[in-house]
Amino acid sequence: RIPMATMTAARAAARALGAKTEIPAPRRPAGLSRAVRARPRRALAEERDVSKLSSPGRPRTLGWGRKRGSVGPDEDLLADPDTHGYCVYSHADWSYAYKSVAGEFDSIRDGGNVEGSIPDELIGGVLYRNGPGLFERGGREYNHMLDGDGYVLRFEFSDAKTARFASRFVRTKEFRAEEEADDVLYRGTFGTMRTGGPLRNALDLHQKNLANTNILAWGGKVYALYEAGRPVELDPKTLETVGEVDLNGRLSGGMFVSVGAPSGVESALGIGGKAFTAHPHVDPNTGRVVGWGWTSAVAKRSVEATFWEWDENWGEAASTEYSMSGCEAAPHDFAVTESWYVMIQNCLRVDPLLYLAGVKGAGECLVSQPEDPVTVHLIPRRDAGFDGGADKSDRAAVAAAGPRESFEIHVAFAHDGPPLAEGGRDVSESDMREWVTAYTAGWDKLEPGSFLGEWSASAGWDFDIATSLSPDFNNIPRTLLWRYRINARTGTVFREPAPGCEDLCVDHPHVNPMFEGRRECRYVYASISNEVRCSGPPLGYVRIDVATGKTQRWWAGNRTFCEEVVLVPKKGSDGAPGTDDRCWVLGMCSAHDAEGAGRSSLVVLDGEDLGKGPVARVWLDNQIPHGLHGMFVPA
């Protein structure tokens, strides 16, 4: 998932009004800032018996000696388990990932549709998932998969053999208008234009709230989230859309940009609004949910953010304001430690003229700047809910220069203190105050040029594909798990692959929710594509021990694509050290065969023994498009 850089439109508007500012140069901190190269890859022969291989080609090589995705959908190679981990798949299968869903569903899944037994900790609970589900209007395909309209799933677990499944589109006011007209009436972030060409799109700064990224279920409310807009409230049981909300006046309406004019003037111009993150986090240390809203302040060339912490009744417990100087693309994700909010600001600039002209979408106007270092922000929590928070030690915010040629996407977690692999569980109080550690999923190298150039339409295959919207991974950088070490006193930043991740391609990392923000956390769970250092679709799940580098893997098969994990603590996982692997790992999968379109299922794996495979599986009757993020609500 790449960040929603939709503030481009805001900056375009400001530049059209003649705003002129200078970009502050990123501060190079004292001390060394570098990226450590990965170690040479360990032969897979150490992990599996490859002495007798049944498939032809170049065994134990990337793609089995084939271009990634070029295996035909009728080839036996796809069924060979010896090829797992080598990025062997067919783009004919993957092309269905972003094909529009067949409709909305509501059914009881039992009998032959449920394999194994649903664990006790899930009974009575609800899993919500969100992602793009509709990619066309009036016979016209959208420009990009991430412009797809939001589609929410709901699994309610009744007993060990029964679950109720429902799905609904997020029917925002823009969705309803387009549905009625059967036409594209609004611009999308990633290049989908209103019908009518540049003349109908020029100087139109309004973008559709796609509500297609994540779910926040908290305090009896359920919201569909999209970081380029405000939350959209859903009925927790029926998924019917209630409407866009401002979180009790915290998120003003209008385009999320300010040119420094009086609020009344900006409101009349349709600007001055505030968007909300698609990645709030629940802090188990305080029992609060933490989120942030942002506005692009063009005159200051910065992103102005406000962090909020709410208790379980949506009572505001704390708020903090912070300015990210020189930021043109708001971070997609962040992390919460006991003392800090941790954000990594990527190096992207805006080239807005073609957006103003109605030729390109906001995301298409982003230009990568790999020559500049990323900026790591440590923002003190003003009321961390316990003694010893950053503000109570009079510590100031830190903005430190990190590595170059970097692009960070999703944050697994962060914690105060040095990594668990350094010094074990016992470290000094001074080290806990001085160091911050963060684990993020990011690209192995950011290339110069158009940021979305790698995500162009897929073409040139020797077989039919369902849609060109599903990206060609031959053009996309590898995503791996990085470990950041930040010295809050000196501003020094170190980055290296997380232990055990030098060869892996992973994304959407998560930890046991009871261990968010805690140094005792040892295990990170993620989707995995391969272990040969290349980019590819997710074909299984992995558990990474960040203390030792040991991993457990479960391969779903070369024809089954796996979405993000959602982790549910088991009984006995109360945050005590050594219990963070006591969790259930939930993930959506889409399995294919030579007939074409696949069939989706929800798998449940044991976090203590991931490699043994699903303990339960809930099959659906059809394929659901490849989703993004979700949340579990216990009984």
Describe this structure as you would to a colleague.
- With 635 residues, this protein is mainly beta.
- The chain is 7% helix and 35% strand.
- It is built from seven helices and 38 strands.
- A hairpin with a 5-residue loop joins β28 and β29 (493-497).
Question: Brief description of this entry?
Answer:
By secondary structure, the protein is mainly β.
Shape annotation: globular
- Write down the oligomeric state: single chain
Low-confidence stretches: 1-53
Percent of residues in helical segments? under 10%
Mean pLDDT: 87
How would a textbook summarize the main sheet?
A: 6 strands, mixed
Q: What is the rounded distance between the termini?
A: 30 Å
Radius of gyration: 23 Å
Count, helices: 7
Query: What is the percentage of strand-forming residues?
Result: 25-35%
Number of strands: 38
